[in-house]
């Protein structure tokens, strides 16, 4: 790419970002971002972060995350939203570009691969940006961690995964994989980063205050899980079972069995890494795709973390069996489809309430496993 082409690309992305921002401020207006900004303000005044009176917009992140949003708390509301949107848009570009750069032995031409991927993730990416969410930050940290593993920088890779757990705790899913594939040094870095992050709030709240915050975080996360279980946008395994058979005692048991099965599939894929020359990317992509399925509060826009998986499947399309091609095509259409605009709100709620996106994500999981067993990735 020439400098002129790069400059044109940057200008085009900046124009797209500006248009998206203006449209978003008329709709969802970065509603979730206000939760982070409020937490940053409370941290500055050493106030409790977790308050029941916040209702649906209660802060659910680990206390250390509030330190990261302090710069936005000291800005005015509009300036903070502009800065947060610009940051998350840039991280989205970096996440997608980093996922493409890391893809080994690419089969498809770059243009069609990028175009197809962007078509699939556009809906969930826009939803992520419109809410002011943090999954793109999580994805960017994890892609940076993966890139560090390919350079042999184990400590950096582990530290980044440790930092990512304070964005979303389920990033810890990658810690055992790091230990198994690049060594115990990476796992030690994960543990050190998490320990430092857990201790950080003592700077403001003291030892006892920090323990109180951690206890309040745990209560908040556990107490807000059940009310969100049957929401249409929840794509987690436990939510899907509750939608399919009702929220009785059987659904959680089946969810546990399914989760264990998915973890078993991931272990199977990793155990067969000797079948291919560059095994890490598919394993990394699979683990990221599992995150919204395994966490009880896995919202539809969290499927943005499946971008590396989508890239991998599109790139290795010819290696998939025809039956898998049909299933994956249907799953990608479901993920990409702007249901509310096409089907209307009522039908969209029914479709989402049937757990259809969970099934779509499970299809992608199965296809990734098939690629590994076929020695294609």
Summarize the structure.
The chain is mostly helical. Helix content is 71%, strand content 0%.
Q: How is this structure best described in words?
A:
The protein is mostly helical. It folds into 2 domains: 1-224, no CATH class; 226-377, no CATH class. 71% of the residues lie in helices and 0% in strands. It is built from 19 helices and no strands. Helix 6 (110-131) packs antiparallel against helix 15. The protein is globular and about 60 Å long. The model has no long low-confidence stretch (mean pLDDT 92).
Descriptive labels:
mainly alpha, 19 helices, globular, 377 residues, 2 domains
What string gives the helices and strands in order? HHHHHHHHHHHHHHHHHHH
The helix-and-strand class reads: mainly alpha
Oligomerization status of the protein chains: single chain
The domain count comes to: 2
What is the CA–CA distance across the termini? 28 Å
The helix tally amounts to 19
Q: How much helix, percentage-wise, in residues? A: over 70%
Strand content: under 5%
Largest sheet: none
Low-confidence stretches: none
* Number of beta-strand segments: 0
Mean residue pLDDT: 92
Radius of gyration: 20 Å
Shape category: globular
Describe how the helices and strands are arranged.
Elements (H helix, E strand, L loop, with lengths): L2 H22 L6 H14 L20 H4 L1 H4 L3 H26 L7 H22 L3 H16 L3 H11 L9 H9 L1 H16 L2 H22 L13 H9 L4 H22 L8 H15 L12 H9 L6 H15 L2 H5 L1 H9 L2 H18 L4
Helix pairs in contact: 5-7, 6-15, 6-16, 7-8, 8-9, 8-10, 9-10, 12-13, 13-14, 13-19, 14-15, 14-19, 15-19, 16-19
